[in-house]
Every structure is written in C-alpha cells, then in structure tokens.
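Entry type: protein chain
Record version: 2
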Amino acid sequence: MARIEKLSASVVNRIAAGEVVERPASVVKELLENALDSMPTRIDLALEQGGIALVRVVDNGGGIEPEDLQLAVAPHATSKLRIAEDLERINTLGFRGEALASIGEVARLIIQSRPPDGSGASIEVDRGQVGEVTPCGGGVGTVVEVHQLFSNVPARRAFLRAASTEWSHSSEAFVRTALAHPAVAFSLTHNGRCVHELPVAATWRIRIGGLFGTALSDNLIEVEASDGEIALHGLVSRPENDMASSRMQHLFVSGRPFRDRSILHAVQEAYRGVLLSGRQPIVFLRFTLPADMVDVNVHPAKMEVRFREPSRLYRLVLSALRTQFLSSDMRTHLKPPTGVATAPWFGSPQAAGSQTAADFSTSLFSAADVSFSGATSLRADPAWEQRCTAPEASRDAELAVQMHDRYIIVESDAGIEVIDQHALHERVLYEQLKSSLADGVLEVQPLLIPERIDLTPAEIELLTEHSATLAQAGMRVEPFGGPTVIVTSKPVLAGSTPAAAIVHEVLDRLSSSSAQASKAMLIDEVLHSLACRAAIKAGDALSQTEVDALVRGRHTVHNSHHCPHGRPTILTLSRQELDRQFRRT
C-alpha cells in the first residue's frame, strides 16, 4: 500500500479548481461576486470567445492593498471570515478563499488594484506560478483578467463546448448577477461588441426591463409578503404568459441567486388550476432574511442554499401568489403584454387583428382548403379525402356545446365526448403544419411591417444557430442591430398570433432541447411552438360556428386524441357508463 503523503499546493489548488471552476461561466460568477463585495457602483465585464480566451472584470470598489495581493491568490485566504462562527452568518458573496488560487492554477490570472487612499499594484499568476507584486497606475478599484482557461489542463479544456455555448452560459451568469443587484451599474461586452449597458436601476422592475425588455417587465405582477423576519418581494407573470421551460424562474436570497426545488414547487402549486399542464410561469422572487437563517456554504458553486425553516418560505410563497391571483382580475385589469396573443382567432370586431367566426373556420382548415402556388391542393391527397369521407366525418351537425370557456361537450353514438379546446386545436394545427412542411406546400405570410423583438444575448446566439431551421418552418428572423431582431414572415397557419409570441416560445423550447438533437427533432420543436402559441386557449369564449369548426377538425388529422405534448384532447363517457352512474342498469 502506498505511503500517505501531504499533497502539494499545486495539486490542492487544481482539485479545488475542479469543484469551483467548471467552465468560463464559473469564473464569471466568482469574479463578479468578488467585485460586488468591494462595494462598487459600477462593474464592467468583457469576454472573448464566450470567456474561454478572456474574462475581464473591472470594478470601482474599495480595491486591494498592495501588501495583500500575494494573499489574495493564496488558498484559504480571505478578508470576509475571521472565526468559525462567521460561517453561520455570512453576509458577503465571494467568501470562498480558494477561488482566485484555483483560477490561477488553470489559467493566466492578472490582478491590478488600487485602494482609494493608496497606490496601485499588480500581480500575475501564470498556471500556478505566482509572480512578484509590482507597482502600477490605474484608477481606484480592481481589474481582474483570466486568459486562456484550462490551457494547461487539456483534459478539462476538451470538455468545454463551442464558444457560442460557453458564451450562453457566461451571459446567463452575468444576467443573474445583474438581476440580483439593481443598485449597481453593469456592462457586458463580448468580442468587442457591447451587449448590455445597465445603469443603476431605481426599482427591480426597471432592471428586469433592461435585461429582458419592457414588454415583459411592464406586465409582471408585483408580489409583497412577510412572515416575521422573512420578507418576500417578487414579480411574476400572469397565467396566460407562460413558457415551455423554467429558464425564466429566478430566485435570490440576500443578493445571491440560488436554486431551490421546494420554493419552485410552491410556485407551481400557486399556479395550479390557472396554468396549462406542463407550462411554466415567469418568476422573479427575492427573499430577505437574517444571515443565520440561511446556510450558503452547502455547494461548491454556491448555487444551492439551505434554509433553517424551509417550510416557512414554502408557505410564504404559496400564500403570497395565491392571494395575488385571487385578489386580481387577471384578464380585465392587466393589459396584455406586447407580442403575446390572448385570443388569436376571436375578440371584439373592432380589435386589431381579430377574426370573425368565418375567419376562424378558414384559418383552422387553411392547410386543407387552400391551393398553394406551385403545388396541388392538399385535397388531392387520397389519405386526406379518405379521412374527410369517413362515416364519423360525414356528420354535418354534431351537437356540440362549449362549457366553462374551456371544454366542448359533444354528443356521439357512443355517448358523450368532452374536448379540451386548446389541446385539440393545438393537435390540429400541429398536424397541418407538419403535413404542409412534408409536402413542401407550407404557406408563408410575409409581414407588411416586420415585427421587432428585443432578446437577451443568449437568445440572439440561439436564434443565429437555428435560423435555417426556423426559416424552413416559415419563420424568417433577421438581425436588426444590438439586442433587436426583426421577423419578416411567419406561417399562414399561425393566424393573427404575434410573431414575438412565437419566437419566444420557439426559443424556450430550443433552449431546453438536447445539444445532440437532430435537425428533424429541432424542426418538430418549432412546429410544436407554432401550434401551441397559435391555438385557442382555455378561457377563450367561442361562437357556435367556431365550436362546430373545431369539432369537425378532429376528423381531419391523425392522432387527434392527444395533443403534441401527449395530453389527452378528448375524454369519452359511454352511454353504458352514464346509465350506470344514473343507476339505469
């Protein structure tokens, strides 16, 4: 058996780097948190190749004394802890003493700093080799540069993804940090291009608007609640402004972003009954509580925390959201957000973009009834004709009634069918889009006035990566400068649904897709997004003409008993079951 030996400082630092430094985004997070702990009013972040080639953080905070620079890059050295009991009441962000030492072990690290009442100095750590402290000029504050991450650890470097993927993760780390600290000005530059310029924000809503656009922030619902020394401030979306994934759910405690399944479960419970199954709300929640009630030292990357009384936070979130929903007339008193459709096929005759019942019927079956230039009508498809002449489809008038603006009750020979109007319409649109695309006859509607959409840097990268896939599905998106893109066309089957709603839905689904997903799978995700956004929603009141058109539509497509997400569209109560329930048997 080998003798036990004490590991060298280099090996210890490299092991620590394995825990703390996973990718460039980890470096971004650590350096931004260190900068925030110096009490700055402004922080500037510059990246190259997503942070692989360079991460540069500049702050105007308190700086580091020249005699402390050697200790700053030493393991287990920090200015934020003195005794073991301090671990129970941590009020800073970058308290981990090995962060800079770990980064310096796997990259070239340069620190230049000057305190307000002192002289400037710099130090360089080149892949574990610590240099001398040298005098230098510069403004008050600190500049930290990390060059060529993992250049001396080929095995770790090989596990990094493409620069675009690493940029997506790094920009998300920046967004989370900037969200947590609206009182600090931030900027983000990537490969020399300014991506974000965020001034000091007077309110959290303003900071959210600066990162995600005012169309989103202006329509969030404010939530305030407290339980003794625990306070909650939040901004959450209306139920109809949902998403396909949870990527827009942000939690913060005392200025620190974190993840917590229990709290997110409370959010889901609060939205239960007002949100479609499988959909996710947009949530920004900020908790304030005494430092000794939360343990932030339970995860190497500091993304998970442990609360002393988690059940109190769960009840607080659940109660605050449910109280807000019960006390607000969500549809009447809150304006719909720009670019989000609430009722794409109907509304008051004066409403812009609204459609009549006849328009609804035409839109619903446009893939089947319209002849396309350069292609024959889909009615020429024998399979389509066979479906439309099936005995059940030949019934011109099925007795159908809408109930609760959500379900449609239909009399059938077997008994009674209960239809989920959103799920069925989504399936009909999805099958029509897929069939049109497969036959090369997908009708595209050029937009007379292209629609402008503001996106986050990560979303811009995702759109650029999948622009060809979007174009194949009828969505043509072009850069417009800065964080803005324009949509120049969309499929006719999307109806009056705003292009912005479709783009956000598509991005939401693509961001959740596997990096190894095939092109066919990605196109299918786009078609799902189009169908989901364009379909009528639960809560939409339909005319009898619209009800009849939707009921007939279920006979024209395959798999009409399940929506594209797998949820049932139709439930059947047989006459035998009805007779049994009424004790007729």
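Comment: The chain has a mean pLDDT of 79.
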